[in-house]
Amino acid sequence: MEAGPFGIDPLVWAGLRLFIALALAIGLVMNGALLLIYLERKIQAVMQDRIGPYHVGPFGLLQTFADALKLIAKEDLRAEKTDAAFFIAAPALVFTPMLASFVVLPFAPSIVGADLNIGLLYLATLGSMGVLGIVIAGWASNNKYALMGGLRSAAQLISYEVPGILSLVTAVLVVGSLSMVKITESQPGPLVNVLIIPFAFVTYFISALAETNRTPFDLPEAESELVAGYLTEYSGMRWGTMLALTEYGNVTVVCGIMTTLWFGGWNGPGVDAFPILGVLWFTLKTYAFILIFMWVRATLPRLRIDQLMGFCWKVLIPLTLLNLAVTATLLMAFPNDQLPVAIANWILVAALVVGLPMLQQRRLRRIRERLRTRTLGPATAA
Amino acid sequence: MLDILEPLLFALLALSILGAGLGVVLANRITTSALLMAFTFLNMAGMFVLLGAETIAAFQVLIYVGAITVLILYGIMFTPQAPRSYGLFFQQQTPAGAAIAALVALPVMGIAFAFHDAGPVGPRGGDLPRLATSVFTDFAFPFEIASVLLLAAMIGAIVLVKREP
């Protein structure tokens, strides 16, 4: 255990550091959520040729502050037939793992809550814990739409965890460490991991969209069919914690993982001279990914539940498994050369980009043919 | 100070595990039992961290809390909930349960108290290399057998629930 500054007892310093890290993380999550909601509304507005929030403050910047104050001031409502203990516990069960994830995100050299040597495994673990809270929320609400939303999300999150973790494992194979700090330090130059293993990045990006319940995978809260899914019975700050804080916190965490694993984390010009610049690079990269998430949300329609599950189990998991096997084999065959891995990965990316539309076209043609033959069958009688 | 902290943490975790475990058996609602079981698993993970096995702790949470408890809850939600206060299956067999518990607990306690001078559990920080080495070298065969067994169980489950079109 390292001694703290000003000769503080190491044990006291460990506790103090945890407290500071937690306070920073809470501040980051709260302010980050306010900023991200504003960004999302503004970006969607721009993409849909609207103006977006502009009444409160300059450029509507204070709009989300006003919304947050409204949420906090709201009456603490709970429907009578809900299950009190579980209903109250669920937002905490969803929020806590997300908050704990911030501990291992490396913002800059030596600015990290704790450099765990199993950092990435820790993040994957916490990512899987949030499901529990969502399922509990759906069940405790005593509402069929909430229950459906909770069950859908359990199925979706557990399924998409598999390709997500497999993609992470591929990246870990190339780097050779699970520690977030070591992963960042392994990509100091312009040759970041995304150039070596782009396919793992693509598959992780898709699973990250699904794991954070973002469009096109936001089925658990599909408002046109499920009211608001597991959030139906929630209001006030409980709703705010579950939806706003947790969703945007999770988006920040997965974007931070992508930044660290594939884009060199805090590395950037001038970091060696001024380590604090790392915070800037890390934040910029992370927010670039968040902007892509918002762009995707404004662009793509929502999938159907069978399409969602089919895509995960029939396309994503076989492809990530193939990628893992190929990467592992090539790394064993050429331990000192990353070029073969890079070539194989880029071929896989090309195959995905070219192959998926072709497969989709063939499938559509088959469906169309089936529909044409069916119009002569019993469908016309009905 | 660390010398006081460790037994204190151990006592806290052990009491939580025992209390939550009792709750799993004694709770009247099956959802409460499932959640308390998740709590037990979390505390077990804390126990592993205390022993210096962080990787096993992480896998404990990843698999048991993140997957198995959720699947159990999934199963509970698909089961019709009768509006009655019912004693769970295992609450009606107290004497037999106590006998079996004692039968298991006595040898375990005997073994536990036989370790008078157990050495330190190993250097702090990083059980990952050791775990990986032992799984993929010394215990590669049992590991593979367990994998094949799980695969067979999975295929069997799929075959069992597959309906003919």
The largest inter-chain interface, given as chain pair and residues per side, is: A-B, 28 and 25 residues
What is the class of the largest domain in chain B in the CATH system? Answer: Mainly Alpha
Question: Which outline of chain B best applies?
Answer: globular
Number of helices of chain B: 6
What does this structure look like?
The complex is a heterodimer of chains A (382) and B (165). With 382 residues, chain A is mostly helical. Chain A has one domain (81-359). Chain A has 14 helices and no strands. Chain A has helices at 10-47, 63-73, 84-101, 119-140, 144-175, 180-185, 193-196, 198-211, 223-226, 236-262, 277-299, 305-333, 339-374, 378-381. In chain A, helix 3 (84-101) packs antiparallel against helix 4 and helix 8 runs antiparallel to helix 12 (305-333). The longest helix of chain A is centred in the N-terminal third of the chain and has 38 residues, at 10-47. The radius of gyration of chain A is 23 Å and the shape is globular. The model of chain A has no long low-confidence stretch (mean pLDDT 81). Chain B is mostly helical and 165 residues long. In chain B, helix 1 (2-26) runs antiparallel to helix 2 (30-50). Chain B is globular and about 65 Å long. The mean pLDDT of chain B is 81. Classes of the chains: A mainly alpha (382), B mainly alpha (165). At the A-B interface, helix 4 and helix 5 of A face helix 2 and helix 3 of B.
Topology:
The complex is a heterodimer of chains A (382) and B (165).
Chain A: H1 10-47, H2 63-73, H3 84-101, H4 119-140, H5 144-175, H6 180-185, H7 193-196, H8 198-211, H9 223-226, H10 236-262, H11 277-299, H12 305-333, H13 339-374, H14 378-381
Helix pairs in contact in A: 1-2, 1-10, 1-11, 2-10, 3-4, 3-10, 4-5, 5-8, 5-12, 8-10, 8-12, 8-13, 10-11, 12-13
Chain B: H1 2-26, H2 30-50, H3 54-78, H4 94-114, H5 128-138, H6 140-161
Quick synopsis:
The complex is a heterodimer of chains A (382) and B (165). Chain A is mostly helical. Helix content of chain A is 70%, strand content 0%.
